Structure formats: structure tokens, C-alpha cells
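We store sequence with structure; for instance:
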Amino acid sequence: MEIDYLQLAIEEAYKYQLLTYPNPAVGAVVVKSGAVMAIEAHQRAGTSHAEVLALLSTYESISGKTVPFDRFNAAMAHKFLLGLEDGFFSDCTLYVTLEPCSHIGKTPSCASLIEHLGLKKVVIGILDPIKGHGGGAKRLERVGIEVEIVNSKAAKDLIEPFLIWQNRAFVVFKLAQSLNGQISGGYISSQESLEFVHKIRAVATKLLIGGSTVRIDRPRLDCRFTGDRAPDIYIYSKDRQFDRTIPLFSVPNRDVEIGSSLEFLKKPGLVLVEGGEGLLWALKSHFDWILLFIAPTMIAGELNYNIEAKLEFLHIDKNSRDLIIWSRFIS
């Protein structure tokens, strides 16, 4: 059975979806003589891109050596790869979800790197749709590297958050529930899932939560599981009176706003929403995606998201315990 190498790259990229803000989530796979040499993904803005990480891992697979530097330091990674003997990657095919960048930003150009390394072939999920960012594919073709453009819907879906937050806030509603749909009873998700959410909080422009949830749950809404800076908070509530001993108000180095206007969603950014049924109903038309964690537990109770909606599943994954479903509303 033929392996869908591009799908492997997409699946790897979803492990870091949103964590790369303001960069897009991108995955890459390197194949040599039918064998997978590397499966990597961009992990954080300002660090090595997916293609670079995949090429470094390929070097390690072929040479049996470990790179002697921080692989996430893009400048060092490019310098190292360019210093390898000519033809080291000449019989390798790179599968990447997004066209390699041809411009120089916080990191060097991946298209330039691949051009100099002389790979055999590059398979691209989707061309870069951002004006001024494209041109990588044509650059590779000009030097004789075979290029295939797949125009993958899954690869396009993968970068939808990136495309949206260029112009306005990308809004994702996070919810966690038991297998039978219950949302009460303390932490439902696994520690691994909680850490992933805290990583999203750390890069989010703002965390949006409903007033009722704040009053009832008295949350902290920090990033204590990852040690990152806590996100700024917007409490969606017409009633501005809150008990200031609620933990979220005492977290240092954060702004907390209270209001019923959503004008801030018109500005580019990443907004994470955490809340209950009331907030889901109230803001349904503003959500771009739903991030759902389903725990393998059955909980007795009557507290769930009592709402009618049709969703399109974009990606389904599983960590060590929970199911993770990325989805969006459909009309």
C-alpha cells in the first residue's frame, strides 16, 4: 500500500496547530528510496521551519550523528545544512504542506536552502496564498528540482487560521467533555491535553470567557502547566461587577477587561474562547473553529452543551488518552 507522505506531514503539523502563531502550521516529510527519513513540523514562531527540521533529522538518519547545536536556531541550522557535502540530499524527496518560503523574515529562506541543497523533488500541498510570500516553487523549478503541486484541501484547511488572522481575529472555542457528553466534575481532559491548551493560551492574543463561568468556576486561567506568561483576559458580561478575589484577577502581568462589545475581534489576532453552553450560544456566529477534547470516561450528570449545530471535522487526533477533534461550523 502506498504511503500518503503529505498526509503524514499534515498530521504532524496539527500537533502544533495554533502554537506557531503568528506563523502558519506546516509539516514536512523527507523520503529517500521509499523510506521515511524524517517527519517534522514547525513548532514556534521565530524558530526553524518544518523543512529545515526535516532536513536536519534526515541528516541524522543518514549519518548516524546528532547535530551539534540547537536545531530550533534557524540561522545555525541553515548554516549547518549549507555546509554539508554537495549532493547529500540529491536523492531525497521533500513533502511539505505549504510552499517553501522564498522571502527572508525572522528566519532565512527555505526555498533558497532547498535550491542550494539540490533535492531530487519537492511535493507541495498548497502554494502560499499570501501576497509577497510565494515564488518558492518557481525558484526550485528554475534550478532543475522537480516540483509537484497537490492543491490539497487538507493542506488548505491546515492554514485557515493563518489566513484569517491576517485580517481579523481567528476565534477558536475550546471545550472538553466525557465520552457521554458531560462537562462537569473538575478536570475532564488528561494532563497532556491541559498542557496543550495552556500552550495555546500562552500565544493567544486574548482569552475570552463568559461572566457566568467566571463567577461560578472562579478560574485562574493561567499557564501554570507550561510555565508561560498568562494570557490577557476579556470577560464577556453586561454586568461589570465581579468578586476581585477570583483567582484570575490576581495573576500578575496580565490585562483583564470586562465588557459586552466584541469589536476587538475585528483586529488581527488569535482569540481562544473557554466557556459553557451560554457563551457557545451567544457567540456561535463568531467562532471559526471548535477544538474538542473527548475523554474516555463516562460521567453521571446533566450538564452538557445543549445546542444544535452541524460541524465539519477537519482533523481527528489522539494523544496518550484523549481524542482531539478540530472542527468548524457548517450551515
About this structure: The radius of gyration is 22 Å. Residues 167 and 268 are 5 Å apart (CA to CA).
